[in-house]
């Protein structure tokens, strides 16, 4: 007998059906949706964050810093790992199902008339919910790019770009310089611009973009907030840093040397915003204890989950795998979307992985599913033992049966599908994979 589909799932199915078409850059549809809702994005102060990699880490760190000031903080990020509701949270609590259902019913007609996309509707939902709940401040992550992203309807307290790597070149341009220009489009006149990019040439492009758009002040983390003596242990990432009040040592629970820069980028953002948003360096470590970001070098038992979905992210992951003491051998369950640089991802991971299990994530959109056979053949040329299990459940079971450390990576879909099967709630810090429970 068929299992009835819940009202919530039916509403989501209709919303996700809007992802089938091409991405449609531009702010007009989002602005029209928001206008019909009373322009909720103008009723709440926001921090706006863009970047190829690191923006998720920066968003959750800004969130934790702001909450340490006693503020009620909304956070909008994407994509989700297991449940759509992960995208829209207030003080760490996900938006209720009944609120999602009611909103989607209310905007169904106007969204259809406008031809609004999945992301545009979801963005409108986030702004409306935060305004309805009267949050003190919201942290908003771009979905794709910057200037033409649906989230770029806000005039933020401060705008932050984390870093620049090659990704989504079909939409953002073929060069790093093109991508930097697009992401720098979130900078606004008279508002602070914080630049987390570590490469001097790209930071210079972003700085010029901020100046062109009239942003002020312009803060470069690489020169204004320097870090050194970075060490990564099971407790997190510790580092020394120069700040406007002198030198301090910080500890983030997020793992990876690159998290020193992400943490400082978040810190620089709230510091530059000033007023009730500013956190004193001496109080930062207490706030950082509350940082939680699933799927970014997240260790649970003998599993590591990392959503690295481009070559830059994979190189950062490989550096962490090489320096962090993990039990050997290291088996990587990997599934990538076909429009990503999957060869670059495999190239980056090959030197630190003992075995690849190539698979197809269950939730990968049909039009973006990669060719696992081609990937397995390519991985075999890298002189690494390779297994090919197209069925995701079988690939994960094969990994469970191995000794050593199990890595799941390649996309949000791959990590999310694994967490779903292992019974891991992304919004709950810690947790134990179902297979390891007694």
The biggest sheet, with number of strands, parallel, antiparallel or mixed sense and barrel status, is: 8 strands, mixed
Separation of the first and last Cα atoms:
33 Å
How many domains, in number, for the residues? 2
Q: What is the count of helical runs?
A: 16
Largest sheet strand order: 4-3-2-5-1-6-7-8
* Number of DSSP-assigned strands: 17
Q: Give the oligomeric state of the chains in this entry, treating copies of one chain as homo and distinct chains as hetero.
A: single chain
**CATH fold field value of the largest domain:** UDP-N-acetylmuramoyl-L-alanine:D-glutamate ligase
- Evaluate the radius of gyration: 21 Å
Please state the structural category: alpha/beta
Would you spell out the secondary-structure blueprint of this structure?
Blueprint (H helix, E strand, L loop, with lengths): L6 H10 L11 H9 L9 E5 L4 H13 L5 E4 L11 E3 L2 E2 L2 H18 L3 H15 L4 E5 L16 E4 L7 H4 L3 H8 L9 E3 L4 H13 L5 E3 H4 L2 E7 L2 E8 L2 E7 L5 H16 L7 H8 L9 E3 L2 E4 L4 H13 L6 E5 L7 H8 L5 E4 L13 H10 L4 E3 L3 H9 L4 E5 L2 H11 L16
Parallel strand pairs: 1-5, 1-6, 2-5, 6-7, 7-8, 13-17, 14-15, 14-17, 15-16
Antiparallel strand pairs: 2-3, 3-4, 9-10, 10-11, 12-13
Helix pairs in contact: 1-4, 2-4, 2-5, 3-10, 7-8, 12-13
Structure in words:
- The longest helix has 18 residues.
- The protein has 16 helices and 17 strands.
- The strands form 3 sheets. An 8-stranded mixed sheet has the order 4-3-2-5-1-6-7-8, sandwiched between helices.
- α3 crosses α10.
- The chain has 2 domains: 282 residues, UDP-N-acetylmuramoyl-L-alanine:D-glutamate ligase (3-Layer(aba) Sandwich); 139 residues, Mur ligase, C-terminal domain (Protein-Tyrosine Phosphatase, Chain A), CATH 3.90.190.
- It has 438 residues and is an alpha/beta fold.
């Amino acid at each position: 007998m068929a299992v009835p589909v819940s009202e919530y799932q039916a509403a989501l199915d209709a919303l996700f059906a809007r992802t089938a078409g091409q991405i449609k850059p531009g702010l007009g549809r989002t602005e029209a949706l928001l206008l019909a809702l009373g322009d909720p994005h103008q009723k709440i102060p926001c921090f706006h964050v863009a970047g190829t990699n690191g923006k998720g880490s920066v968003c959750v760190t800004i969130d934790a810093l702001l909450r340490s000031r006693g503020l009620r903080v909304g956070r909008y990020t994407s994509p989700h790992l297991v449940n759509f509701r992960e995208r829209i949270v207030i003080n760490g609590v996900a938006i209720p199902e009944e609120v999602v259902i009611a909103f989607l019913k209310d905007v169904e007609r106007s969204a259809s008339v406008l031809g609004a996309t999945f992301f545009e509707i979801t963005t409108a939902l986030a702004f409306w919910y935060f305004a309805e709940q009267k949050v003190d401040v919201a942290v908003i992550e771009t979905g794709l790019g910057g200037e033409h992203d649906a989230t770029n309807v806000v005039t933020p307290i401060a705008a932050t770009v984390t870093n620049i790597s090659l990704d989504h070149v079909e939409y953002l341009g073929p060069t790093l310089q093109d991508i930097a220009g697009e992401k720098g489009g979130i900078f606004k006149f008279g508002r602070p611009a914080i630049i987390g990019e570590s490469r001097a040439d790209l930071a210079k492009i972003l700085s010029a973009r901020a100046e062109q758009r009239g942003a002020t002040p312009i803060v470069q983390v690489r020169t204004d907030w320097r870090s050194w003596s970075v060490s990564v242990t099971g407790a997190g990432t510790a580092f020394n840093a120069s700040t406007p009040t002198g030198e301090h040592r910080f500890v983030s629970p997020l793992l990876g040397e690159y998290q020193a820069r992400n943490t400082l980028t978040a810190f620089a953002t709230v510091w530059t915003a000033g007023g009730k948003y500013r956190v004193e360096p001496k109080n930062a470590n207490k706030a950082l204890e509350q940082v939680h970001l699933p799927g970014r070098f997240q260790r649970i038992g003998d599993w590591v989950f990392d959503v690295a979905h481009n070559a830059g992210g994979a190189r950062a992951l490989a550096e962490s795998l090489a320096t962090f003491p993990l039990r050997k051998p290291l088996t990587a369950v990997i599934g990538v979307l076909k429009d990503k640089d999957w060869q670059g991802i495999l190239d980056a991971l090959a030197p630190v992985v003992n075995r690849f299990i190539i698979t197809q994530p269950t939730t990968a959109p049909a039009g973006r599913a990669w060719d696992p056979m081609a990937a397995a053949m390519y991985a075999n040329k890298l002189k690494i033992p390779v297994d090919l299990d197209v069925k995701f459940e079988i690939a994960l079971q094969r990994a469970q049966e191995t000794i050593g450390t199990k890595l799941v990576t390649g996309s949000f879909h791959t990590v999310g599908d694994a967490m779903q099967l292992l019974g891991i709630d992304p919004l709950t810090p810690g947790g134990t994979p179902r297979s390891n429970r007694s």
